[in-house]
């Protein structure tokens, strides 16, 4: 994947693109973030809302980003510029790039924890999770290591290594999740968890819950910051964007759903708190593994696979920053990659120290408690992972629907997708009206406009 302006390169094949897009989508968002936001937002009602947003907003919106990227052959800023040069709209592209930095800065920290658990599991010494994430040096070291791995892959190009490995490892992750679902649901007390996860109580839905579900849908599908613009820019004209988008959405949602089917039964069986926040999965799963026969081996394998899933997401995040600087400022790709990784690492240091290592960052409560937990990492997750993605998607759907023009976008999507021609009118309505209006209402609600 070379992105020199004269020779930007393309995915080697259709599966190469779907794998890369699914690799970006499937990651810690499915297995770490999804269960913890479900737990914090009251369970099944949130899950239903989330599914609705994925189907009605996320996937149709994904076509818009892919179409814009493929038509413009550029990073988010360049793509906006190609349609409407030197207009304020380019700030929307820029916000996407900045959001990518913000997300990667805390995502890399969690990826570091995941990586650390490979060794903890293999050594059979799981220890206390709270003490682990409060210890500054191991956490920073693992975060740095993960950013280093990410940069090395983005630097070397992703086609050879990561695409080939993902093809083998992601199906194994899937099978392992299915096996864990069976095991977790056999524990006594598991059914209470299942009902929390699957039996909706609609009185739990508030404005904040709706935004959390929408934000999680965008986060999990890697939407709202121009990632799919960037990946779309490497797609050939004969690819079927609709079929690709639907399969990415389907697999992504499946993996998240399975993760919940493991976590909630296990959690209730162990008598833990579903609203534990970012620590949730790390508090539940290692304990599950220590109870299982052969669990240390299974646990080691699980954290290896989860690290790979995280890596295919972190490389996509770093790729956005990189493509932006390379395309717009003409700097050498190899230099940009390392600079961007180092910069993002520095931005992530407060998040790394916010789980007990530094009192200042661990209790950084400058956002109202109804919006976010007081630690710095939760703030970052809310600001970039929920708010900014929803806002970015609002702006980009207006941009595609009205400024570039929904019909031009639809023409682009129709190339390669015969199926799309029949549903084109519905899509045009969605991108121009339905999607921006729903996002707008949810954002307004967040500021208490309807209270
Ligand atoms: N979708 C990724 C995940 O669920 C995270 C991500 C968000 C990646 C935005 C790229 C862009 O883990």
Note down, in words, how this protein is organized.
With 451 residues, the protein is an all-alpha fold. Helix content is 76%, strand content 0%. The protein is built from 18 helices and no strands. Bound molecules: phenylalanine (PHE). Phenylalanine binds next to helix 1, helix 2, helix 10 and helix 14.
Largest sheet: none
Ligand kinds: phenylalanine
Tally of separate helices? 18
Mean pLDDT: 90
> In percent, how helical is the residue content?
over 70%
The dominant shape is globular
Low-confidence stretches: 1-6
Strand content: under 5%
Estimated structural class: mainly alpha
Distance separating the two termini: 49 Å
Secondary-structure element order, as H and E? HHHHHHHHHHHHHHHHHH
Q: What integer value in Å does the Rg equal?
A: 21 Å
Tell me the total number of β-strands: 0
């Amino acid at each position: 994947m070379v992105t020199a302006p004269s020779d930007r390169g393309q995915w080697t094949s259709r599966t190469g693109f779907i794998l890369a897009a699914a690799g970006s989508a499937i990651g810690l968002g499915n297995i770490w973030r999804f269960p913890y936001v479900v737990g914090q937002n009251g369970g099944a009602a949130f899950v239903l809302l989330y599914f609705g947003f994925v189907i009605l907003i996320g996937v149709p919106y994904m076509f818009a980003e892919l179409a814009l990227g493929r038509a413009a052959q550029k990073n988010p800023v360049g793509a906006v510029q190609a349609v409407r040069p030197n207009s304020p709209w380019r700030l929307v592209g820029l916000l996407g790039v900045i959001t990518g930095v913000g997300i990667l800065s805390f995502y890399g920290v969690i990826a570091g924890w995941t990586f650390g658990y490979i060794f903890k599991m293999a050594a059979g010494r799981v220890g206390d999770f709270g003490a682990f994430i409060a210890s500054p040096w191991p956490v920073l070291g693992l975060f740095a290591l993960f950013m280093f791995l990410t940069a090395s892959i983005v630097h070397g190009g992703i086609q050879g290594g990561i695409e080939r490995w993902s093809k083998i490892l992601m199906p194994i992750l899937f099978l392992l999740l299915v096996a864990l679902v069976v095991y977790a649901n056999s524990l006594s007390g598991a059914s209470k968890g299942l009902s929390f996860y699957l039996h909706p109580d609609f009185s739990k839905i508030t404005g904040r819950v709706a935004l959390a579900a929408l934000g999680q849908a965008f986060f999990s599908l890697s939407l709202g910051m121009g990632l799919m613009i960037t990946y779309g820019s490497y797609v050939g004209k004969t690819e079927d964007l609709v079929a690709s988008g639907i399969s990415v959405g389907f697999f992504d949602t499946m993996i998240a759903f399975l993760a919940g089917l493991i976590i909630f039964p296990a959690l209730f069986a162990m008598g833990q708190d579903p609203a534990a926040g970012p620590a949730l999965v790390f508090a539940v799963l290692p304990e599950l593994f220590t109870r299982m026969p052969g669990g240390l081996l299974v646990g080691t394998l699980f954290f290896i696979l989860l690290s790979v899933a995280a890596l295919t997401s972190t490389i996509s995040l770093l790729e956005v920053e990189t493509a932006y600087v390379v395309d717009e400022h003409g700097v050498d790709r190899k230099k940009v990659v390392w600079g961007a990784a180092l910069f993002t690492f520095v931005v992530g240091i407060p998040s790394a120290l916010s789980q007990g290592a530094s009192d200042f960052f661990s209790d950084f409560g400058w956002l109202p408690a109804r919006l976010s937990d007081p630690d710095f990492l939760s703030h970052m997750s809310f600001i970039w992972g929920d708010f900014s993605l929803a806002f970015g998607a609002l702006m980009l759907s207006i941009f595609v629907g009205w400024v570039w023009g929904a019909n031009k976008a639809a023409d682009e999507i129709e190339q390669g997708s015969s199926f799309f021609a029949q549903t084109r009118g519905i899509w045009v309505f969605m991108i121009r009206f339905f999607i921006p209006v729903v996002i707008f209402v949810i954002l307004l609600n967040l500021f208490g406009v309807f209270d």
